[in-house]
């Protein structure tokens, strides 16, 4: 038998094995009698065309009312998408103990900023959450409100200058600069100055963190599908320059506050206060500080600016609602001597409804990921959602 024949046979054998592997994996939901979307080789229900997640969910919600969940495939990994409200509530609240894992990639050694509260699992998550919960009381938020108002006043100045010079404004960019300055001030106590300088460091690294992935799509899939292997290969979920920037920023901020005995009641100051606890177990490392501050930053500037952008868009289309909101704001300001106060904000109930409706129509985070930590027998069903 010549080499060519051996090579052809080897290729045929390999192709057959790959085919049988995918066929077996793609029969997971069918074998269990679960309603599912038909997968395609090799990405399952993923698409390189990358439709918006909303379009993808429309195909799934066609089954609402007929089934509590729909099965899909992330490459070969079976995924449950619950579409019945009772099941969603069970997962997030009633049976949380079976679903507390986030299923996110965390690599504290090579990628310390990935170990934030949104990604951590189990005891590590519980420990960080317990330590951070006191920093989000209404009293602490009230302290930060003054900082938000100060940045808002600078935003008004920038907006006023811009409309004098330009007939059209890129609202998304302007609001992104506003939220960058707010989060930078509230989290790090740093004047980011993005409103005056669109190319400020914080603005640039914020963009990199949210829109410039550190690895090709195929490597990103490896991270999500085989996290243990990805950690052995020292793969990162974040760009190294982004990680270095935020670690250096937190380190220099903490050192400055400690050396000068400064107390500002911002997020970084609250993290430092945690470490004043005499019990070592209750303290938090610099890397953990940086990870939580990074989460606070990345979860705040892009999401908030996009919500405000969509909100303004909807208000421009619905001017009766816009006028009613303006009347409420005007009246509340009159009641508080023309000043925007924390108490006044609590009274703007109609404005809050507008923001909530914007979030319903244009969710900043279209899905939450949970991973089962044990086999879960669904109520009133023979179906078991298996561990993992």
Automatic annotation (TrEMBL):
The chain crosses the membrane at residues 6-22. Keywords: Endoplasmic reticulum, Heme, Iron, Membrane, Metal-binding, Microsome, Monooxygenase, Oxidoreductase, Transmembrane, Transmembrane helix. Its cofactor is heme. It is found in: Endoplasmic reticulum membrane; Microsome membrane. GO terms for cellular component: endoplasmic reticulum membrane. It is a peripheral membrane protein. Pfam families: p450. GO terms for molecular function: heme binding; iron ion binding; monooxygenase activity; oxidoreductase activity, acting on paired donors, with incorporation or reduction of molecular oxygen. Belongs to the cytochrome P450 family. This is Cytochrome P450. It comes from Hermetia illucens.
């Amino acid at each position: 038998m010549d080499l060519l024949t051996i090579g052809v046979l080897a290729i045929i054998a390999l192709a057959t094995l790959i085919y049988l592997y995918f066929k077996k994996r793609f029969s997971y939901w069918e074998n269990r009698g679960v309603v599912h979307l038909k997968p395609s080789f090799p990405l399952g229900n993923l698409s390189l065309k990358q439709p918006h997640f909303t379009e993808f969910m429309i195909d799934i919600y066609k089954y609402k009312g007929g089934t509590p969940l729909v099965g899909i495939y992330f490459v070969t990994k079976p995924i449950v998408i619950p579409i019945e409200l009772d099941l969603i509530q069970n997962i997030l609240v009633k049976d949380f103990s079976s679903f507390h894992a986030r299923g996110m990639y965390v690599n504290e050694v090579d990628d310390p900023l990935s170990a934030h509260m949104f990604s951590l699992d189990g005891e590590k998550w519980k420990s960080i959450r317990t330590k951070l919960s006191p920093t989000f009381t209404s009293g602490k938020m009230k302290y930060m409100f003054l900082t938000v108002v100060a940045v808002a006043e600078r935003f008004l100045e920038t907006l006023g200058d811009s409309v004098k010079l330009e007939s059209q404004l890129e609202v998304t960019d302007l609001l992104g600069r506003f939220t960058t300055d707010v989060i930078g001030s509230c989290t790090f106590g740093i004047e980011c100055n993005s409103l005056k300088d669109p190319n400020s460091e914080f603005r640039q690294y914020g963009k990199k963190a949210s829109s410039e992935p550190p690895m090709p799509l195929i490597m990103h899939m490896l991270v999500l599908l085989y996290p243990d292997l990805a950690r052995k290969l020292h793969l990162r979920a974040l760009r190294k320059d982004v990680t270095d920037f935020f670690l250096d920023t937190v380190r220099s901020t903490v050192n400055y506050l400690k050396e000068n005995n400064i107390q500002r009641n911002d997020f970084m100051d609250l993290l430092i206060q945690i470490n004043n606890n005499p019990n070592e177990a209750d303290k938090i490392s610099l890397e953990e500080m940086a990870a939580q501050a990074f989460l606070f930053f990345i979860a705040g500037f892009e999401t908030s600016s996009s919500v405000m952008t969509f909100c303004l868009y909807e208000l421009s289309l619905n001017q009766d609602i816009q006028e009613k909101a303006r009347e409420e704001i005007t009246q509340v300001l009159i009641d508080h001597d023309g000043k925007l106060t924390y108490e006044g904000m609590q009274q703007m109930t109609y404005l809050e409804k507008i923001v909530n409706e914007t979030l319903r129509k244009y969710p900043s985070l279209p899905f939450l990921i949970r991973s089962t930590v044990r086999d879960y027998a669904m109520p009133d069903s023979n179906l078991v959602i298996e561990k993992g």
